[in-house]
Structure formats: structure tokens, C-alpha cells
Amino acid sequence: MPDEKEEPSGGSFNGRDFFVKLGLGSLSIAAAGTAVFAYQYLSPNVLYEPSPIVNAGKPESYPVDSVTLDVNAAIFLIHSKEGFFALSAVCTHLGCLTAWKPELGIIACPCHGSKFHRDGVKIEGPAPRPLPWLRTWVSDDGDLMVDRSTPIRPMEFVRV
Ligand code: FES
Q: Which pTM does this prediction carry?
């Protein structure tokens, strides 16, 4: 008579091996999940933003009495008789991008109708403040540079 407690030979179902493999598989999945969260936690959470410094190019490319909008940088580069200056083109009401209206000689916001003189002073509309002047200088290479992060007092012209 065969021994009933004898282990079945290869190829047949073994309950203990199955549960050992199931347990190891579960531990592996848990370890992988922990490793992913640990990596995310330890990685620097940095937002890479573009530099606030804009190279606006050579002064010669801006005729006297011109107002030039740089859509990407959201600035106006203005060449007046007194010199160069830069304004933020972002409306001080709710942040829409303003536009130069040469036929009217003003800067206008398309969102809620604020209007500004080309020196940034508000004419009308809900904007609470004028468009800020931005620090502007000429680089060693002779390019006009604008720092969008640094407002300055109005009427500080750059003469080239
Ligand atoms: S965002 Fe310019 S007027 Fe409202």
C-alpha cells in the first residue's frame, strides 16, 4: 500500500510552493512601489522657467518713434526721441497681453478695454496700475537687454 503522505512528484500542484511564490511576488511588487515613491521623494522638485533676461537685439533695428511688441517675452521695446525703454506688455488688470495700436498711438488691452499711453501711463479702463518700466541696458556686445523681473522708475531712458 502506497504512503499517502508522500509528496507528489514534479508537474503536479504543490500548495506550499504556490503560496511561497505568491508571497515573494507580492513582496517584490511592494518593494518596487516603495522604490518608485522613494525616488520621486528624493528627486528635486524644480520648475525650470525661462530666464527673465531678454536680449532684444541691436538698437539699430528699432527706428525712432517705434513701439515693438515681443510676444514671446511679453515686453514692449520703445525707441523714443529721449532714448530706449522697455515696458511690460502684461496688463495690470488680470494679466492679458496688451497690443500696440499704431492707428490710435496707444497700447490697448483686448480683455476689458484698458488703454495706456506708450509710456505705460493708464488712460482708461479697469487696470489698477500703469504698465511697469523694466530695467534696460546695453550689453558689452551692443545688444539691448531687458530684465523682465526688475521694474524701474519711469523715465529712465537708455541712450545709445
Ligand atoms: S486684463 Fe487688461 S483690462 Fe482686464
A: 0.72
d(CA 140, CA 2): 98
Could you tell me if 112 and 94 are in contact, meaning their C-beta atoms sit under 8 angstroms apart?
yes
Write out pLDDT tens, residues 12-54: 667 778 788 888 888 888 888 888 888 877 777 777 788 999 9
HSE-up (13 A, CA, CB side) for residue 35: 6
The string over 91-105, giving b where at least 16 C-beta atoms fall within 10 Å of a residue's C-beta and e elsewhere, is bbbeeeebebeeeee
Please report the DSSP string for 52-76 in residue order: SEEEEE-GGGS-TTEEEEETTTTEE
Query: Using CA atoms, how far apart are residues 6 and 83, in angstroms rounded to an integer?
Result: 100
Choose which residue among 88, 96, 107 to substitute to test ligand 1 binding: the one with the highest number of ligand atoms within 8 A of its C-beta. Answer: 96
Residue with the smallest CA separation from ligand 1 atom 1 is 94
Q: Which cell is 36 given?
A: 518608485
What is the pLDDT at residue 1?
A: 47
115 C-alpha to center of ligand 1: Å? 9
- Whose CA is closest to 76, among 131, 129, 130? 131
Highest mean pLDDT: which of 8-12, 21-25, 97-101?
97-101
Whose Cα sits closest to atom 3 in ligand 1?
Answer: 112
